[in-house]
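Weekly structure sync - notes
Attendees: PM, LS, DV (DV joined late)
Agenda: review two folding runs queued last week.

Item 1: First target. Sequence and structure tokens pasted below for the record.
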Amino acid sequence: MDVNRFRTHTLHDERILRILSAALEAVEPAKLVQDYLQKADLPKHKRAFLLGIGKAAEPMTLAAADSLTHFTDALVVTKYASSRTRERIAVIESGHPVPDARSLAAGRAALDFVSRLNEDDLLICLISGGGSALVTAPRQGVTLEEIQAKTSSLLASGAPIQEVNNLRRQLDRIKGGGLARATKAKIVSLILSDVIGNSLETIASGMTVDVARGTRVQNVIIGDLRRAAEIAKQKAAEEGFESGILDLAIQGEASEVGLKLAQRLKEERRKRRSPFCLIAGGETTVTIKGNGKGGRNQELALAAVDELSGVENAMLISLATDGDDGPTDAAGAVVNGETRQRAERIGMDASAYLSRNDAYHFFKPLNDLLKPGYTGTNVNDLLLLIGL
């Protein structure tokens, strides 16, 4: 991945740019799929079908198509599709993070696709985060509007993804193993995890997780945040940093987490030799109280601004690995000891922007929004605490 995609006003150290690039390349979904299929002993079958659902569905499915050239048909449901077209592969763009009419159509298409398969067929599912919203099939008596309202309410309240997806499983017949129950085919589901702890029931609401199917369903985690963090740690060491992993299960209110991480960075800056790079990750939440613009990674970074003010040679980076942080074109933001002073010189107060959840408009004039664009992967959020 081109390191310049991560460059900002504050983040221009080539070593750190290479660390970020290495971390995301480690969870590049196409390579993960290809590596698995090259070694896999797949169930015997007469025909093979591919079904990709999630933010990383397109590269995962295309990789599977390249590895299994004998496949019959493929369907991809994703948030952003490329302009590439492939024979035997249909692609649907759908709604996220709240399901919409496109999600309904995609849900029908997915169920139709799998329901026509038989016992001699093999269905390879390529599952990644975002799938819960991208396909929906409301249970009898439930409307799309009800699902939208309840999903929006939970997201705005700062509810963890486990709670959101638990609701989705209750309201939606494609979730909680519903996709598996809709087909007679053998299933191998290759999963890119965006969930802390890699809970199969939570990733894309567990569409292929169904104990009733027994050994006819195989669910395999092929990539996760741990893999990205380990490669980031290794790359940081190669670049001359003292490196380590702090915590890859960070949850909670983004603003509270940002403050705590800033305090930890200050502490580490006092006691460690430089340079160092400490890696953390997880998935925070934001309780929306204002009418600003931003995402959890930007809010986390904004909450660190005042605490890091004046701390020399320290930097905090918060990045959504899919390149998509909330309803913005940014993936996160970068903060160092000069961020507050730079903001004050143009009349911006970090606490005021934080109070109205307006991190995007705080970091934009500072040119410290991370904007790598669509990365093609999705394994939670990556956090770097750096001493230089």
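Item 2: Second target, run right after the first with the same settings.
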Amino acid sequence: MWSICKKELNQFFSNLTGYMAIIFFLLINGVFLFVLNDSSIFEFGYAALDKFFELAPWIFIFLLPAITMRSLSDEFKAGTFEILKTKPLSSWQIVFGKYCSILIVLILAILPTVIYIITIKALSAQGGIDAGGILGSYIGLLLLAAVFAAIGLFCSGVTNNAVVAFLISAFSCLVLYFGFNAVSKLAFFTNGLDYYIEMLGIDFHYRSTSRGVLDTRDLIYFMSLIFVFLLGTVKNLHKK
């Protein structure tokens, strides 16, 4: 499994694509948080990173599919998947190896944003920040990104066309993140069903963890989604 993970990381960072993905994530966040007046944390008036945690999921909706779209589709297109299957590796080990490499890239992308915390704390009039809320938000962001990574890997396994995999993955992430929240606001569901429909979406559980309280229901939700999409990926590999 770790040999697959190492191979994927070497391939990802063997050219500028991997570095550009991380730089793109940091650059977009930096522009919105510190340059644009409408979303600048300087205009927010509070020592908080709420703007960052509101923006990051929307960037991940498009960034994660871009990272994962070639994970399996290129293996199918180039015919290297048959060679990969001759190795003493199970389908689960192949999927977990690729998935772990994606998670490592995500951590490398998120880790530099710690400087935002240092900046906010230094600029705070009282010299303090809501550490609990920020920690919960980071955990929620990692879980959300892990779900998007599982979705992207699954979509990459259903086609040998990387562009198609990107489009399906981005659409699936968008629907699971915001779709249920949008449907719950329809007038037809104002009889109490709106709350339960909203609970089906990632956004509901992401906002819950962002409050700084880790609810087991939120953790079970995220873990269940990750398992379902990874299981679906393994099933697709068996069909291949």
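Discussion on item 2: The two ends are 19 Å apart (CA to CA).
Action: LS to circulate a short write-up before next sync.
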